[in-house]
Amino acid sequence: NTSKAAVLGLTRCMAQDLAPRGIRVNSVSPGTVWNANNERFHREALGLDRAAAEAAPDHGGKFLLRRFADPAEVAAPIAFLLSSEASFIT
Predict the structure, then answer these.
(1) DSSP conformation letters of the chain
(2) pTM greater than the 0.85 cutoff
(3) CA-CA distance, 54 to 67, in Å (whole number)?
(4) Which of 1, 8, 59, 75 has the fewest CB atoms lying closer than 10 Å?
């Protein structure tokens, strides 16, 4: 995905530029997250529940893990990156 590659490049440049000041820069690029809006769209517009959407080749089937992310799966690594345990990650 072009936009994710751009974010990754920007993140790397900012990390290199800001590391000497002790500022860490990270990004998380989770892909599509299954939330209320996604659920409503798939149910109302496409007639699909989560399992059917994940199995559809043009939806979940195009993701490496063949499924949508849960919000908690995105929040957990972000919380880690914000913690002191990740103080050397940039």
Answers:
(1) -HHHHHHHHHHHHHHHHHGGGT----------B--HHHHHHHHHTT---HHHHHHSTTTGGGSTTSSPBPHHHHHHHHHHHHSGGGTT--
(2) no
(3) 5
(4) 1
* Residues in Cβ contact with 86 at an 8 Å cutoff, skipping those fewer than 6 apart: 24, 26, 80
User: What count of other Cβ atoms lies within 10 Å of the Cβ of residue 42?
Assistant: 21
Show pLDDT as tens, one digit a residue, over the chain (90 residues): 799 899 999 999 999 999 999 999 999 998 889 999 999 999 999 999 999 988 888 776 778 888 899 999 999 999 999 999 999 999
